[in-house]
Amino acid sequence: MKSTFKKTCHTFIFLLIGFFSIAQVSVSVDEDLARMGYMHRFENNNGSKGSYLEGQVWDNKADLIALISSDGSHSITLKPNSSLYNSNNPYWSNGAGDGNKWLEASTYVEYAAGAYPGGPLSFGANISSYTLDNRYTLKAFIKEFTQQYTLVNSEEITIESSVSEFNMSYTPSSNANVIQYGFILEGLNANPNKDWGAVTISSTSNDNSLVYQEVWGDEFNDSTIYQAGKINVIDGTKWFHQTKLPNGRSWYNSEVQHYTDETANSYVSDGTLKIVAKRETYTDQGQTKEFTSARLNSKFAFTYGKVEVRAKLPTGSGTWPAIWMLGKNITEPGAYWEQEFGTTSWPACGEIDIMEHWGKNQNYVSSAMHTPSSYGGTINHGGQTISTASSKFHLYTLVWTPEKMVFSVDGNVHYTYNPTEKNKDTWPFDADQYLLLNVAIEPSIVSSFKTSAMEIDYVRIYQLGQALNSKTISNQSSLHAWVNSEGQIKIHSTLMLDAIRLYDFHGRELIHQRPYAKQIAVDGNAYSGILILKAEAENKRWIRKILIN
Fold it and tell me: How much is the pLDDT for 199?
């Protein structure tokens, strides 16, 4: 997490990282903080909380200040904001300067937005220090609302100065509801003109938090597939050569190459993949062209996650290497997924350009989005200059969440796509996409060009999965789960299993059984991707991540 934030930031982003832990949940972290946290202030009306008055934001308007740590410790210091005190303002002073006030700092997670996949919740943290004056009371709360923000239920606890930690748990009545959690500060003169102390809260260790885990990739160094010191064909279980001319004559954008499945154009050697563009006369599908190259489709498609590709780019004015993605549902003749899943034309299927580099603008790499709202010469793009783009390897990364796309090179972000309104025209990105690697040749290719390659060290795709502690995953673990060759999910325990639940990656419950047995088998053939298994036996609970290809 970055240690600096825009002034429009809302306060409680760090609750999303360390303090809010959900059994099988992904709470996405929005570093731009467009609308992640909300702070409200309430006034005492005859002993009860008054109506919502005003939303407050980070910087000089926050009622309840949250000083966010810059050392990566994920701690927050909560204190009243003395800079807002105004004895002439009856809101703060009630004429006497000591009115009862409620100050709230909180954030929401919503099932519908993909941030909360449902299920039991827990909210907890360590209390590192507590110096608040006794005129104040600090409370933590969880509230449940309908999607229309009608209150369904709420729970709160008082955080005493004598405690070293707090923990709350809550099970919503419906996974479709909205969950709010945070802190309330109650007390006299809640916005004072002097410092009345603070509470510092730090994250607890969370063995079941979701972190990015690799779900697919190619390191191009598997000795069971690639022989050292040899020119090797690519792994056909992971990659597909797309060679068919989509219109029977040529490729798009007036490109002049043939894409081939020849090892001269794509091969693995010495631990890296080479995609080679060449000047050569080549006839295929009744068409003769003067250049060849390769275009690879991944045989893996996914929704949401992180893509990392470490690559060194070709040179030559007129070369056009790309690392990019297309909707699995695209109707493009010859694409790997088209025959079975093709239902949607471009750009409605969505296109994500992780990296593009035009040899005529050497060392400038860019990222772009193509959607029905803007495509072709899209307005949605950004880039940066990498002085060694073609002489050294660099890491090209996409982080794709339900809220936004973030593009970077070597960790330096150059573009974020986060449309205010997400619909089928601006955001066709709630469905599977697959990866493409290719080097195209433009008609303007220089006459001196002979050959050049995009060299790729590795491709890695990550998705959020359970981070299990070492005790849980040790060889002595009393629960083991795996998928056998027949697609069965085998679950063996040393204890009698009282209940098992299987969830998909978005938190939807697929299976709920009470087996009362130590060994069971569940048919997993109807499922694919990452699944989360929860099992219970006596007083023990386990969570396992299962990958079904």
Answer: 78
| Average pLDDT across the chain, whole number | 74
What's the confidence (pLDDT) of residue 12?
Answer: 26
- In which residue ranges of the chain is pLDDT below 50? 1-75, 91-100, 108-117, 190, 204-210, 466-477
**List of residues 6+ apart from 349 with CB closer than 8 A:** 326, 327, 328, 329, 330, 331, 428
Query: For 484-531, what is the HEC assignment?
Result: CCCCEEEEEEEEEECEEEEEECCCCEEEEECCCEEEEEEECCCCCEEE
Number of Cβ within a 10 Å radius of residue 432: 17
What tens digit of pLDDT does each residue of 352-409 get? 999 999 999 999 999 999 999 999 999 999 999 999 999 999 999 999 987 789 999 9
CA 55/CA 37 separation, integer angstroms: 10
Structure tokens at 373: 């709202």
CA angle 50-55-56, nearest 5°? 120
Instruction: Give the number of residues written for the chain.
Output: 549
In three-state form (DSSP H/G/I as H, E/B as E, the rest C), the secondary structure along 415-482 is EEECCCCCCCCCCCCCCCEEEEEEEEECCCCCCCCCEEEEEEEEEEEEEEEECCCCCCCCCCCCEEEE
401: its two tokens: 């969440």
User: H or E element: which one contains 351?
Assistant: strand 351-357
Task: Give the largest Cα separation in the chain, rounded.
Answer: 90
Cα distance between residue 380 and residue 361, in whole Å? 19
Say which residues have a Cβ less than 8 Å from residue 185's Cβ, sequence separation at least 6.
Answer: 64, 78, 80, 102, 103, 104, 136, 137, 138, 139
- So which residues are the catalytic ones? 351, 356
Number of H helices, E strands in the chain: 2, 37
Residue 115 near residue 109, CB atoms below 8 Å: yes
**Host H or E run for residue 91:** helix 90-93
| Strand partners of residue 351 | 326, 370
- Given this model, what pLDDT does residue 177 score? 72
